[in-house]
Specification:
Length: about 425
């Protein structure tokens, strides 16, 4: 008499990178009553029983080393793009290693925070998600207060904290992913009803959007909207609701662009950056970014040999870091970077699907929300630098200079690794 494989066994059989060991774990799960599937089988586990204590099984080390590689690459490029900045009268009081040292401090703080975040079980993040979002709202309000928030180039987005300037909008990207994942788990039974399932989420998203636009930071609002809408879609909201809300958001962004003269100028400059009207105005950064890519050609002019970073390309260490990479490392370096981000986002989505297959819905949706965050922000940064998208101030995840961005990126990856760690425990027959 044939037996149907269990859902957990199917998850093990379909798990990424399983190979013959994953198939051994699937056979073991189907032939031994009461045991969960094993993705990484071993002789010791094959002899163990379900009630045996499960040792710590670690996490995806390949994912960790890819992130470390991006951080090291970013550190080198930040140093390369800022080493000549003190020659500019605007930064004459700074040392040549000023930005490198600040970036190293941010990496140190972020590493400690990530290690602490990894210790927190996913169920705790789910319990804390509404409170963390509320705290984010308070910080977004606080940054608008003159004696608390710091204003740079007409934007009030930072709270000075001594070692670094904290940017609440970066925290909002993580907390909206956390809140949206928890929200979908709580509202799973009413996801077909608009007013009970989607409208409260839209209110929370609208509140964050208003506070971000007051800074103003439309780029962060776009990323947050994509994260929230992506989680709603992945959480099973009906297509009618999804396209309704998506259309509404597109209309809001179009209205914001049309109603703002300087945003319209950015769009016109994007369409014709080399024109007399825009080359020295809103199209200045884009024209010099394109010149940098042109100089780089196939293999680049060599690490540290960029000319555009010598006071020609503004914000080369943050919003236009890819242009320096393209000039110094050429098309080969840019394609390698795109391939690394593609692999990273794909692996995060796999971990998220694996969590959902193991009935850890909150963990799965949150990890997929983090994947959308990193993937979309990298896509916008790359598109802006290449002239494929209008100029928008978004950093390159894990690589651009910026303490808050590095801090929240590493905390997000720590949460992903925690979810993967819990997946491995479940698939080895353990309990959370």
């Amino acid at each position: 008499m044939s037996r149907q494989p269990s859902a957990a066994a199917s998850a093990a059989r379909n798990a990424p990178h399983a190979g013959w060991q994953g198939w051994l774990g699937w056979w073991r799960a189907d032939t031994t009553a009461g045991e969960l599937p094993v993705r990484l089988a071993s002789v010791d586990h094959a002899r163990s029983r379900h009630h045996t204590a499960v040792r710590e099984l670690g996490f995806d080390q390949v994912l960790l080393w890819v992130v470390v590689a991006l951080l090291c690459w970013g550190l080198v490029m930040v140093y390369s793009s800022t080493i000549a900045m003190p020659d500019n009268p605007r930064f004459r009081n700074l040392e040549h290693e000023h930005f490198l040292i600040r970036h190293l401090i941010a990496l140190g703080v972020a590493t400690v925070a990530a290690l602490l975040a990894f210790q927190v079980p996913m169920k705790r993040w789910q319990e804390w998600s509404p409170w963390l979002l509320a705290g984010t709202v308070v910080l977004l309000i606080a940054v608008l207060i003159p004696f608390i928030g710091r204003e740079v180039n007409g934007a009030r987005r930072w709270i000075p904290l001594g070692l670094m300037n904290f940017q609440p909008s970066e925290l909002a990207k993580l907390t909206i992913a956390m809140y949206a994942a928890g929200y979908m788990v709580r509202r799973m039974e009413v996801k077909e009803r608009f007013f009970r399932a989607v409208l409260p989420m839209c209110v929370a998203l609208g509140l964050l959007g208003v506070l971000l636009l007051m800074q103003p930071d439309m780029g962060a609002f776009m990323v947050i909207a994509v994260i929230a809408m992506g989680i709603l879609f992945l959480g099973g909201v009906s297509a009618r609701m999804f396209f309704l809300v998506s259309g509404l958001l597109v209309g809001v962004f179009a209205l914001l662009i049309m109603s703002s003269p300087w945003r319209r100028e950015r769009v016109f400059a994007y369409l014709d950056p080399f024109s007399v009207e825009h080359a020295l105005g809103k199209g200045y950064q884009l024209t010099h970014s394109l010149i940098a890519f042109g100089r780089g050609e196939w293999f680049g002019v060599g690490l540290g040999a960029s000319i555009e970073k010598l006071h020609w390309l503004p914000e080369a260490h943050t919003d236009f870091l890819l242009a320096v990479i393209g000039e110094e490392l050429g098309l080969v370096g840019v394609l390698l970077l795109i391939a690394v981000f593609w692999w990273l986002v794909r692996r995060l989505m796999q971990i998220g699907r694996q969590s959902i297959a193991l009935e850890q819905v909150f963990a799965g949706l949150m990890v997929q929300g983090i994947a959308l965050w990193i993937g979309f922000q990298a896509f916008i940064h790359i598109g802006v630098n290449l002239g494929a998208l209008p100029t928008k101030g978004l950093t390159l995840p894990f690589m651009s200079f910026g303490g808050s961005a590095i801090l929240l990126n590493l905390i997000a990856i720590a949460i992903v690794l925690r979810a993967d760690h819990e997946n491995r425990k479940l698939m080895h027959g353990g309990r959370l």
